[in-house]
């Protein structure tokens, strides 16, 4: 990669864009709301059940001018969700500043495994056992979204809930391939532990991106 391009990536003025699309947020606290999704390539967290493994290798996704990405978002929505991959692998200060200058709300979905950057209206933290969040990230979380793949994930969820602020909204979400097995267990758990709420991947039920 040319040094000039790498310098722009380091400053966040270019990002390895995998895809961008306008759709309905399907998960968590903002389920059902329209948003423009920006999916950035690159992730080494390594969830075996990840449904976007094609995002893992950042080299497969061309560096794209951040100003171009912002211009596309402006044409569609007043809320942008930056996701991945693992978006915090990259500096997000520039893109979030530019979006907010255009009166666009900035949301992120992250494992928290990399240093905090960006200016956020909503910070969704989804910790993974394979690479835990950094301590600096937990206080930023507005929403803790725990993916439930097996029974041990309930204990992991409780451990992670102790590390976020008392104002953080807590969600349990069945991993899609185990939804038939885990959803009834999540329902029962939430009824016994009502500090938690249920999140579903409603966009998959609706058959939209």
TrEMBL record:
GO molecular function: 4 iron, 4 sulfur cluster binding; carbon-nitrogen lyase activity; magnesium ion binding; S-adenosyl-L-methionine binding
Quaternary structure annotation from Swiss-Prot or TrEMBL: Homodimer.
Domain Radical SAM core: 39-112
Cofactor, how bound (note): Binds 1 S-adenosyl-L-methionine per subunit.
Binding site for S-adenosyl-L-methionine: 49-51, 85, 126-128
Binding site residues for substrate: 24-26, 39, 83, 209
Residues binding [4Fe-4S] cluster, per UniProt: 43, 47, 50
Gene: queE
EC assignment: 4.3.99.3
Catalytic activity as recorded in UniProt: 6-carboxy-5,6,7,8-tetrahydropterin + H(+) = 7-carboxy-7-carbaguanine + NH4(+)
Family: Belongs to the radical SAM superfamily. 7-carboxy-7-deazaguanine synthase family.
Protein's recorded name: 7-carboxy-7-deazaguanine synthase
Source domain of life: Bacteria
PANTHER family in alphabetical order: 7-CARBOXY-7-DEAZAGUANINE SYNTHASE
Pathway: Purine metabolism; 7-cyano-7-deazaguanine biosynthesis
């Amino acid at each position: 990669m040319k040094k000039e391009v790498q310098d722009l990536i380091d400053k966040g003025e270019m990002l390895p864009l995998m895809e961008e699309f306008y759709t309905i947020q399907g998960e968590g606290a903002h389920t059902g709301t329209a948003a423009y999704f920006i999916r950035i390539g690159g992730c080494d967290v390594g969830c075996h059940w990840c449904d976007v493994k094609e995002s893992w290798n950042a080299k497969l996704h061309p560096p794209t001018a951040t100003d171009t990405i912002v211009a596309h978002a402006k044409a569609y929505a007043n809320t942008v969700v930056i996701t991945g991959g693992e978006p915090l692998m990259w500096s997000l200060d520039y893109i979030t500043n530019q979006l907010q200058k255009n009166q666009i709300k900035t949301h992120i979905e992250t494992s928290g495994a990399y240093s905090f950057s960006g200016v956020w209206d909503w910070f969704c933290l989804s910790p993974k056992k394979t690479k835990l969040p950094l301590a600096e990230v937990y206080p930023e979380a507005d929403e803790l979204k725990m993916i439930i793949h097996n029974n041990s994930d309930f204990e992991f969820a409780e451990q992670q809930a102790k590390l976020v602020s008392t104002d953080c909204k807590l969600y349990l979400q069945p991993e899609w391939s185990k939804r038939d097995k885990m959803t009834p267990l999540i329902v029962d758990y939430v009824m016994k532990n009502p500090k938690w709420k249920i999140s579903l991947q409603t966009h998959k039920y609706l058959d939209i991106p």
